[in-house]
Amino acid sequence: MPIDWLQPAGIRLLDQTLLPDREVYLELRTVESVAEAIRALRVRGAPLIGIAAAMGVALAAAAEAAAHERVKGAIAMLGATRPTAVNLHWALRRMERRADAVTNPGDLPGALRAEAQAIWDEDRAMCERIGRYGAALIPADATVMTVCNAGVLATGGMGTALAPVYTLLAAGRAPKVVAPETRPLLQGSRLTAWELSRAGVACTVITDGMVASRLRLGDVACVLAGADRIAANGDVANKIGTYTLALAARAHGVPVYVLAPTSTIDPATPDGAGIPIEERAPQEVTGWRGVRAAPDGVGAWNPAFDVTPAELITAIVTDRGVLAPRDVTRAID
User: Fold this and answer.
1) Quick one: angle between helices 108-135 and 46-62, nearest 10?
2) What is the pLDDT of residues 120-159, one digit of tens each?
3) Catalytic residues
4) Could you give the C-alpha distances from 87 to 67, 111, 154, 260, in angstroms and in order?
5) Facing residues of 177 across strands?
6) Which domains does the chain have, with CATH numbers?
């Protein structure tokens, strides 16, 4: 479990930056430490970021002499950590509405902890529904390709893009996964391969530059991708490399399924051009864990996400069903 409560007030968090070398759990007891964990990708994955942020707001409310002003400040601090993932801001708005409904400051800690727990519980149930809907699209023992990590480590449950894999596994089937390493932080080779191997799922790691050649072999049944934000027209922002993978899949006649909870759909953003794309430090590209790989003085462009146009996506699988990209807002009507 990548996240849990600590008593009387705190969060136990798996530091994903250290995987697969070390499995280290952090004890976070302040909203500042939660914000740092989100910003530094110690916790990542759009749904899990939302859950962690909600729990961080609850921590702020549990602090001594906490009041509505402290909660508002915590929401602002957490909201500034990652701009692209809509689940973060969805969860924070929900926590803010719950706080606004509490008139007695003494009731804030309990009310906000209960709301954060509800967000987590609902995400777990949403993952299970996504898994059932997605599994129906995949031949039982097929090989699928994914990108980044959208499994147990990225959500409050079994995952989004990987949920159909776990659903098929639980039904006694034997799905297989090809995982591009996902540069620059290797969420595919470090995280997806780690959690799949622990679950007993056959997994093959490839470099990002190998996706077209791997799809050309003809044995990959479909591509499964998560989403950090889905625009109203069905354009999808996901980890950098998703657009490349979708283009290669289209060229080889391989269907692309985006799997995400309805909280990832942003009807206020008409299309992908309106999605803010986070740019991260160039050092993530020019080196790895403090060891420089590029020559001194060479810069890097490091967008954390790209946008895959709706026309490259076969279907979007939500917890409310499977939809054509153009119809995605029906899931929240």
Assistant:
1) 170
2) 999 999 999 999 999 999 998 999 999 999 999 999 999 9
3) 228
4) 25, 20, 12, 10
5) 144, 203
6) 3-126 (1.20.120.420), 132-332 (3.40.50.10470)
